[in-house]
Structure formats: C-alpha cells, structure tokens
Write a structure and sequence with these properties.
Elements lengths: L22 H17 L2 H10 L9 E6 L5 H9 L3 E7 L2 H10 L5 E3 L12 E7 L7 H14 E10 L3 H14 L3 H13 L3 H10 L6 E5 L3 E7 L4
Parallel strand pairs: 1-2, 1-4, 2-3, 4-5
Antiparallel strand pairs: 5-7, 6-7
Helix pairs in contact: 1-4, 2-3, 6-7
C-alpha cells in the first residue's frame, strides 16, 4: 500500500474525473468528507486560523471558501461565529447542487479557483481546505496567486501532508467508516497527492507570497497562512 512517497502521485482522484455513478454516490462521498472534518476538528481549526485577531468592524467581514465541497465548513462557521459572512465557490455544479440539498442557505457560485471572479482585495478572507493537493504545481501556484490578489486581510490553506502516517491513517479511516467507493479510493489517493509543508511553502514563494507562515497541525496536516497588515 505504501509504495514510494518521495514524490507526489500524478494520478487524479475519482472526484476530479467526475467518475461518480450518480449524485447519490457523490453526496455520500461529500457527507463522508464533512463528517471526517467534524470528527478531526478540521473545520474548527480552519475557522480559528481564518478569524484570529481580525480587526473589529461595524459589519461582518466577507469570506470566500474556495473548493467549498459539501458546504460543511461554512455551515460550521455560521453556527460558531458571526465575524465573517461566507460565500462558497466550487468548480463543480454537481458538488454545489448536492451541497445546497444539505445546506439550502449556502451562498455558492461555480467558478475556477485559478480565475476568481472578484476584484483585487474584493473579499476580506479566503479559505481553502483540502483543495491544494488536487492541483499540479502550475495550477496550485496560480491558485495561490489568485488568493493573494483577492484577499484583503488573510488567506488560509489547510491540507494533508504527504507521509506514511497520513496514508495509513487515510486507509484505516475510510475502510472502517465508509463503504462509499469514492471515499475509499480518493481518501488514499489524496494522501499520495498531498504536498509536504516544505513543498507547499515553495509553491507559495513561487506564487509571490512573502511573510507567510507554514505550520504543522499534528502529524497529518499543515497550514499556509498569509496575513496582511491590519494597520
């Protein structure tokens, strides 16, 4: 199962290929991912990183969750904090259709993350959870460059780190808790496609980021955070 983890796997995930049988199978996969994010505290961590020490204003800040998937992060953020008014963005109309079934209140738009339909500094905060590993380096760099362009205050990318521990953990988690074909295949492939924190930092530098922070969160995740001056 482990194989070589020295380099990222070039193989796409089933979700990226839209290789699901129907919307019910896709919905099962998205629900699994949202469930794992709740269990493992991913949504809570992303919200903490995104909103920590934001300057106080008379109105809520605007937030954009790119690759919003099931809408689970935005639903968590709405339940937990009124600091940011969130908009979701995903490249897949099918994903957004499924997300709105579970979260009718979701404000979501379909667009490419590498060509965001927003003006420079058009939103206050951008989040990106478990999306970066889906992209090859040139597209990942373009994505990070777009995030820096549209975010006025902060960008937070939270993702898996490529390691044997992550791969074993993904295999065990998906086999013990799901029978969904996409979940089982893509959970393992996500670990194989993940960037290491050092590789992610290199992508950020190549995207023109400066004064950003790379942090590890336990053995399985890292974050890239770009924070503008609040002065």
């Amino acid at each position: 199962m482990l194989g070589s983890l020295r380099c990222r796997s070039p193989a796409s995930e089933l979700l990226d290929e839209r290789a699901y049988r129907d919307l019910d199978e896709l919905r099962g996969n998205l629900r699994d991912m949202a469930r794992y994010d709740r269990w493992l505290g991913v949504s809570a961590l992303a919200l903490q990183l995104a909103t920590a020490d934001l300057p106080l204003t008379s109105a809520a800040h605007t937030g954009l969750d790119v690759g919003c998937g099931s809408g689970g992060f935005i639903a968590h953020a709405r339940r937990t904090s009124s600091t940011v008014c969130w908009l979701g963005l995903d490249v897949s109309q099918d994903v957004l259709r499924v997300a709105r079934r579970d979260h009718p209140e979701l404000n979501g738009i379909c667009a490419q993350g590498t060509r965001l339909p927003f003006a420079d500094a058009g939103v206050d905060v951008v989040t990106c959870i478990h999306l970066l590993h889906h992209l090859a380096p040139p597209n990942a760099i373009a994505l990070l460059r777009e995030f820096a362009r549209v975010a006025r205050l902060r960008v937070v990318c939270l993702d898996l780190t490529r390691s044997a521990g992550t791969l074993i953990g993904a295999w065990l988690l998906t086999r013990l808790t799901s029978r969904n074909r996409l979940t089982r295949a893509d959970g393992v492939q996500s670990a194989r496609r993940a960037y290491t924190p050092e590789e992610a930092a290199d992508l950020a530098r190549r995207a023109g980021w400066s004064d950003f922070e790379v942090r590890t969160h336990g053995p399985f995740r890292y974050s890239l955070t770009l924070t503008r001056s609040f002065a």
